[in-house]
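SAMPLE LOG
Freezer: B-3
Tube label: C17
Construct: single chain, 618 aa
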Amino acid sequence: MIASRRLPTDRRRARGAMGRHWMSGFAMVLLLSGTPAVLHGASNLGSAAPGRRGECPGGRISSIFIDNHSVFDLADTQRDQRFDWALRLANRLHIPTREQVIRRELVFEEGGCYDPELLRESERVLRTSDFIATVDIFGVRQPDGSYHVIVDTRDEWSTRVEVQTGPNTGLQPTGISLRETNLLGTAQQASVFYLRSREERVYGASYLNPQLFGTRWQVGAAAGKTPIGSLLRETVEYPFVGETGRRAARHHIEHHERFFRYLAMQDGSLVEVLVPERRRSFDLGGAIRFGERGRLTSLGALLAGEWVSYPAPPRLADPRGETAAPDSLFDPILEHLDSVADVRAMVLVGQRNVYYVTRRALDTVNGTEDVRLGMEVEMGFGRSIIGLSSQDDLLLDLAVFGAGQIGDGLLVGTRALLEGKRDHHSPADKPEWRDVLAQLNVWTYWQPSAGSRHTLVGAVAASGGWSARVPFQLTLGSASGLRGRPFHLSTAAQRVVGSLEARSYLGGPLSHVFDLGSVAFVDVGRSWAGDAPFGVDSPVHANVGVGLRAAFPPGSRSTFRFDVAAPLGSGFRASELVVSLGLGQAIGRAAREDPELRRSSPRGRSTSMFSVRSDREY
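STRUCTURE (predicted):
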């Protein structure tokens, strides 16, 4: 809650707070910056601090005090003190976030007008970061009518080892990563990762600096080794920040060589078909927003290119080479493959009418969350450039978001994504629209009361593809489908899954060390063959499951899940249990993009690609 209130009664704490007052990408930044003075101007591409000029009826901000705390709060005398030695050790090992890092994330500044909405906006921006666990910002009115603003934060534990397991792998890891999300207290991120499946081994490293040279410019890079080549990615961007940012820019380059995996049945047995694929892409563009906070119109332009090729023919995933496959097995895939070479200029438009409410323990175990409500529509469209493209087509990308609150305890929302290409010279016997991919998510959350430990979540997720000329296949049993079914269940082109989850916060004697919660869920879904290779129409399938949810430290918005699920309708067998371990939520607001859909297409080209940072879900 943000309001004018007294200073903390802990005088020592209050006085302490006041006393602590890749080369193309880099070339682009240097070109834009030129000199330190110009770079400082670039860092203020967002709207200037309101009230910097003119009158401030509510008073000005005379001072900003950053009061940042380490990971664990040892001031609570009611806690179980048996493990204090471990918590003190953790606090000593943790390098606290530097004051200037937090100060740069604020959307107000000293000398500007005091506006409670800007304080709330700064809270939302800080809560989207990976290095802050909790934040509270409030103002203290001074005798002269000005305000001292206190920014009270607590750090996240920034060093994480994340282990992933896949469906039907039991507890055998399918991936592991080591991440540092607040390197030396600077908010920079570095990670190393290793992913594996039956015949794939992918490993590499990534880096992100969200405050390049002390500005809001961000630079990120990743490099890795794949079974058939390499992964290289580089991004330089200046994002929209909350509702106050007015200008954004972005530059992105990616090179990715990988296997696209199809699942198929051969002589009654499941086989995996690997299609070597090479994708290269770039985009360069910018966008502006105008209007008042909560009612913003966006306009942007983007030059984008994409090249997709297949350096080798499909083959079976058979490490020992013991399984032979007839050429006819690959025919359904080859019929749908087409090399892509597209360069297009795109226009991006959007309308954003949103507001936020604060809730606790929706997707987090017991953390504070900013829930976006209202309506947002985004569209990107652009024709391929003749002479630089293999096809003459028009790309359309559409995103629609809507959410609202019914009474005090019920939240409902939906998000729809649609993209496709209209071929201006398609043969009469071929569809005019191709590479059509769509996703629809509908969700609802209900809590009996504001302080309730229980949350009921319902969701419907639909995904599909039509006339795809790039590798594409969905499965009904997967992390984004039925969580209690094997991953190879019912390969298809379209899928619909409905889910219901009962989440509870358990608390416990160690609640000052970590948050612990339980979950019980049921999934029901079916799929349709469509025109995807090896697609089949499935009957309705269902599963049930239970799990544990944990967050470290308390109040963290990063949620670890351990789930055990089993199918319904065929009699129970222990061998059918599906055990999964991962980070985040599979349904609800956090389920932003279907991973099986996104592997066939880059992220949608709309104004959302300019990173409205306060829209992060958990």
